[in-house]
């Protein structure tokens, strides 16, 4: 039974790197963390920032069910399902462009082995998704972060590019500057993240993660991907609705 639990936890960790979805999705929860990907999808809620799940009437591009996929799309979706036990709707939809899905999964998997740890990458993911106003990614990254032990306070702060940890705070503000300035940051922006203790390698990985999650944001916004996680709306949109 212990071996089975350990195996399940390892699969969950790998999922987090890809969704990015998952690090779509990414890191392995400890043996004490019993949340699985499917349980996270079905039961998790964020009482402070979530609303009941709402979805567009129709996606602009249809999702491809793993069982109906063919060729490279089938190969990719089968691999995701086998590895993680489930396929998020974003990946089912991206399978319509196998090169795009393969590229996303490839970069996500590579960054998993980088110097930035899981929690830092997911804080970047949430901060970027908030700025870009992507409900799908914000919902997915929040659910996966919570399912792997990220505290509600941490999740709330990174939505505004903030953290109680000075280095993480600097990283998130640097990521926000990259998004806001489209990469054309100031010397002051760069000096702040350097002064916080970030190495050149870490800084370049911050840029790479921003690019990865911006791609995830853009493709899900363009497609209007149906949300299959507990809904967390960007604050700007929530304010507009009120």
Summarize the structure in words.
This protein is mostly helical and about 240 residues long. About 60% of the residues lie in helices and about 0% in strands. It is built from 12 helices and no strands. α6 (about 120-130) packs antiparallel against α7, α6 runs parallel beside α9 (about 165-180) and α9 (about 165-180) packs antiparallel against α10 (about 185-195).
Q: Quote the average pLDDT.
A: 82
Distance between the termini: 49 Å
Radius of gyration: 17 Å
Number of E-state strands = 0
Q: What is the subunit organization of this protein?
A: single chain
Ranges where pLDDT stays below 50 over 5 or more residues in a row are: 1-55
Number of H/I helices:
12
Strand content: under 5%
Overall SS class: mainly alpha
Helix percent band: 55-70%
Largest sheet: none
